[in-house]
Amino acid sequence: MSSVSKLVSSVCKKIIKPYSPTPISLRCHKLSFLDQINCCIHTPVVFFYPKLSNTWSNKPSNVVSQHLEKSLSKVLTNYYPLAGELNDNISVDCNDNGVEFFTTKIDCPMSQILNDPYADKHNIVYPNGVPNAYSYKGSLAVFQLSHFNCGGIAISICLSHKIADGYTLCNFTNHWATIARNPMSSDILPMTPQFNGASYFPPIKEDLSQTTFILELETEKYSIKSFSFSSSKLTALKARVINQSEVQNPTDTEVVSAFIYQRAMATKKVVTSTLNQTLNLRPPLPKNTMGNNVSPYCIHTKDEKEMDLPQIVGKLRKAKEELRKKYKNAQPNEFVSIAQEALNETIFNGSSSNFYISSTIKFPIYDVDFGWGKPEKVCTPLKNVFMLMDTKNRDGVEVISGLKEQDMLAFERDEELLQFASPSS
User: Fold this and answer.
1) What pTM was estimated for this model as a whole?
2) Which end of the chain is more exposed for a tag (fewer CB within 10 A), N or C?
């Protein structure tokens, strides 16, 4: 990684503030209970555009940067908490302090980064020390525009998990791109984001330090690698489930989550373990509700008999449907207690091995067009997490795996994994 970092030059930093000042009535953004239980990690995502299309291909790099900075300023008016300052674990002072925007030059072609299946090479396109960092002292949202010597660019985004879940990050990025393509569209966004999660999940005053949902980021080195499942391999995995399970219509997320969990357990040589996932609460919450609006849930494995694929899929479906039913039948004032119960089962499950799988499948992450076309590649590298996402053509699933180095060595060589998944760049 040190040799790769030497390729970065001409780092420039700016502070981008909201185009319009945040109204006094919105200056204090209360964190919801679901915000409170999330850690301060900055969640990373990067969009690669190998060659800018149409008139952008001949424009100087500073014009591209100014284009992004102006549209970012406008979208921050709608996503004002991102430009604020966190006040302990209670609220955000939406003081329009702004966000950090870095611009760099990278002295290599983009293909050198994209063609390597080890996604940690992508760190070169992120602000130094920000991705996966706890309690970063800078802004709640950090951006970097990277110019490669081949003419391509990468746009990376790191948002504090205190303010945004994956759904919010995806909506923010698409709204930013919408404004970039059409500067007049800031007044006619597809939907007006609402940061009102606290009205559904009121914050609590108790000490949450023992129940905060923190990923286990040990000091050991991590390796991040991508694997892809083609549509034919997904069909084959689903056939395994359908033939031996009551679940007759397993989703891509369910079958890939179950398979990855099964192979991770096998290669780590553990049986007693827990798989942790989250349920998007939109609905019952409105689709334009931003922030953290996902509820954790988990399944447990206690012996080898529970490690077969159909059984894992069945347990995942049951746990998800039971949690969804609880929220559907509850009154809003019962939401926090349901989330607390689910969180306690996740945090205090007594398992020696915890696996975390998150999914952005069906999110429009490959639709992000700032005016020069859609991205060739999108990557979200998270340590100690398996991130599921659609492939570019939406005809398969990509899994970005973040494991400790010794665990990755075993995982990437697993014969059954490689029967269905291919290392991808």
Assistant:
1) 0.93
2) N
